[in-house]
Amino acid sequence: MNILLEAFKQSFDLVLMLDRDLFEILFLSLKVSFVSLFFSCLIGLPLGTFLAIKNFWFRDNILIIFNTLMGLPPVVVGLIVYLIISRSGPLGWLGILYTPTAMIIAQMILIIPIIVSLSAQAIEEVHLEYKHLFLSLVVPSHKAIKAYLFDARYSILTVMLAGFGRAISEVGAVIIVGGNIDHLTRVMTTSIALETSKGNLSLALALGIILLSIALTVNFLLIRLKIRAKRRMYV
Amino acid sequence: MFKKNIKNELKISPIKIKNISILLNDRIILRNINCQINDKSITAILGPNGAGKSLLLQTINGLTPILNGEITYNLRQLDDNIRKQQAMVFQSPTLLRRTVLGNMEFVNSINKNTNMLDVESILKKVGLEAFNNKPARLLSGGEKQRLSLARALLIQPKLLLLDEPTANLDPYSLKLIEDLISEENSKGTTIILTTHDMSQAKRLASDIIFINKGEILEQTQAKIFFKEPQTIEAKRYLTGEILL
Known about the structure:
- The structure holds two protein chains of two kinds.
- Chain A has one domain: Orthogonal Bundle (MetI-like fold).
- Chain A is 79% helix and 0% strand.
- Chain A contains ten helices and no strands.
- Chain A has helices spanning 2-16, 20-53, 59-69, 74-85, 100-137, 141-151, 153-168, 172-178, 188-197, 201-231.
- Chain A is globular and about 65 Å long.
- Chain B has a single domain, classed as 3-Layer(aba) Sandwich (Rossmann fold), CATH 3.40.50.300.
- A six-stranded mixed beta sheet of chain B has the order 5-6-7-3-8-9, sandwiched between helices. A three-stranded antiparallel beta sheet of chain B has the order 2-1-4, covered by helices on one side.
- In chain B, strand 8 (207-212) and strand 9 (215-221) form a beta hairpin.
- In chain B, helix 4 (100-110) packs parallel to helix 6, helix 5 (116-125) packs antiparallel against helix 6 (141-154) and helix 6 packs parallel to helix 7 (171-186).
- The longest helix of chain B is centred in the last third of the chain and has 16 residues, at 171-186.
- The relative contact order of chain B is 0.18.
């Protein structure tokens, strides 16, 4: 109980004192998570849309594969990315091991299946609802896709939230490919792991509380938005 | 401008349906359908539930693949130009997850012949001008159907297909929709509608297609159909008997 109280106190102190190291770690965590989410959406949303509206014989199998990949173990992803980008790996010449870029790549591999699978579900729902109407109105494909994405926007926001949640809380892959290097690749989760291993439980808990607060704030805002949309029957 | 003229000059009726059959889930739902929809007519498709009325309407709109036979629209095969001359109002209105105006704007954005002035005047015509910013899916049943009709009218179709447009509506919405149907027809729009409302069919239709178990049993003028139906099934249907 004392540890918890101390952790709360310490986390407040860290935030109130505008601790430079803390904000550096926090900023990098958010940067890595948002950048990986952005690129994952760039790849995942068109792919999800394609799978939602096109019917071809192995479509269901692809969806099954993406659904399975949602449960990819982060350490395995970290290890594979490590093997590929390490000095002796096929992409070793890029020299991105132990950089935020490597962390972003690893997180993208973890997030893309979430974006593809969940956005495909959300868009398919709208597509099935609008299919006959759009056929009847002779809506060109590009306008139909734009309409699906627009009208599924609140569900897609939830999908993005799921991707962000996976990214911000991820530790296994980023610690392998990022190396948890102070002032370079240290993020909230890897700091927590480090402080725990050093026995500095109060600081680890304080960081955990801050991390949770960020996730809670983002979730709160998006869920409020979705509730508002539900009231207007936009979802 | 050139495109606009071509579209306006394209005549798509009479519609001739020759020997079409429709297969759904390995079952023949419509069998050897032969009929003709006259230019500028109002044709009511009548028949019991499950007879294939809605499917026939959707087939004319090109939404259902045909197993055999053909449909010609003023001697032309169905293509995108012909489809753009048609507008369909579905039995359960499919409304976009947007406001009333958002729904109209979407149709306006794909239809180059209309503008926002048309949108406003049509919304006024269907009595929805005060609901511009209301989410469409929060409208009542009658309002939804009116919005659906407004969206169809915005296309300025040559052929208007209405699948039970007034089912379960209050008298105000019913009268408003019927008046709009008559008005559209008087402008030269060919109209095909399905209905279970005999008095509506009598009020609106010039021609009747009576369909039962996926087959057309009668096609005749409305006044003849209601006065002297030719088949036993039609007679029984008109007297309210259940057709099995």
